[in-house]
Amino acid sequence: MRQIESPIAYSAIPDDVTNRAHEAFASDPAARIAKNAVSACPIRKVARVPEALSLDPRTFDVQLSQGDITNQKRSGRCWMFASLNTMRFRIMKKLNLKSFELSQAYPLFWDKYERANWFFQNIIATADEPVTSRNVAFLLLDPLCDGGQWDMFRSIVKKYGVVPKDAMPETHCSSNTGDMDAFLTRHLRAGAKTLRDMIADGADKDALEEKQADLLEQFYRILAICLGEPPVSFEARIRDKDDKLIVSGTFTPTQFFNEFVDMNLDDFISVINAPTSDKPYYHSYSVRFLGNIAEDGGVHYVNLPIDSLKRAAIAQLKDGLPVWFGCDVDQNYLQDDGMMGISTMDADGLFGVPVMASLDKAARLDYGESLMTHAMVFQGVNLDDDGKPKLWRVENSWGKDHGHDGYDLMTDDWFSEYVYQVVVDKKYLTEEELAAYNSEPTPLAPWDPMGALA
After folding, report:
1. Beta bridge partners of 421
2. Which of 191, 205, 200, 194 lies closest to 117, judged by CA?
3. DSSP-based three-state secondary structure for 115
4. Is 327 an active-site residue?
5. What Rg do the C-alpha atoms of the chain give, in angstroms?
6. Which domains are assigned to the chain?
7. pLDDT tens digit string along 266-284?
8. Catalytic residue among 292, 303, 374, 382
9. What are the residues whose beta carbons fall under 8 Å from the beta carbon of 228, sequence distance 6 or more?
10. For this structure, is 78 an active site residue?
11. Cross-strand pairs, 164
12. For the whole model, what pTM was predicted?
């Protein structure tokens, strides 16, 4: 076989390196015991530290009462579930309900549809770049994933409102989005090629708009087959805890949101924590190509120290409102125990090398080890004698059989390391923090870790 020349001077692993590694492993009883344990059990179960799990999950200093736990099933809609869980909380409180659920299929439909429009417009805007450019390759990589951010959900609700779950129930495709996303993505990529070819052949603006409209009509058809059409209006009848009929009538989705959620969406803003040198604190940021509703613009957030995120979240909880947040959920997470904590696993002790302790938060972001992967809701917090947080109560969307009846626990040191975003009413920010949010945002590259989707 012909040797391919490379600009890098590769070299083989020296024999003495492998020999030393073998001798060190063979002579270490702890390594052999660890090998025997991990060969029979999952790594996380072996590294689990039972003493770190002895925390009471039932009672918190600040604790909100939510309805039945929701379940996103085999879909990546956590950001939608978390957002809707903060909104249904308001409905339950306003109407004195034991539980209530808003439709998650409804915003899924409109997000996909609007994101297709957003995608085609970005494809047209980058048509002068080769298909192999980093920007175009990024757009084509995963144009229709289920994930998103709060600002994107806010845009959907401002335009389309919300509906009760009965008004647009789940379908197989909404609960199991894999196949639907695959076919829709193929349609988008084919549309991208068509639009780029038309531009290369000199098509004018009117021809491009006509073709994009045709592509969107086809996209809508596939969506409607998978999810059903979203209601223009619907009948709603709701009984309170005492079985008294308190809501009966016909509503549009926007009317229902305005009357029963009663939330000024523009008051709630995204605050991030990214302690990297390229993103100074007290500056606002946006992310190129990240959004869904074209006329509403993309995401916008302010980068603040982690203590600012905690302070604002606690203030909102104390005022009786839950808090949307985004984190890297899989890090040091014991799912069966429903516990996110730095000390819940001792992987470094198990392996005998500094795996978990080898990178700090900034380095994990810079070197691709961590980013936001999941959105949930804070529903409570325990405080020490000085009012500092110790333990957070987390509402997840993985069903009631997960964790502690559907809830997780998060230690405060885990919050510091792996929470990247909270959504709070802007009134909980200081004047300096709010001024930073209102400043002209610095655009980040599309592949920046802070553009990750929950």
Report:
1. 272, 326
2. 191
3. helix
4. no
5. 24
6. 43-72+265-454 (3.90.70.10), 74-263 (3.90.70.10)
7. 999 999 999 999 999 999 9
8. 374
9. 105, 168, 171
10. yes
11. 102
12. 0.96
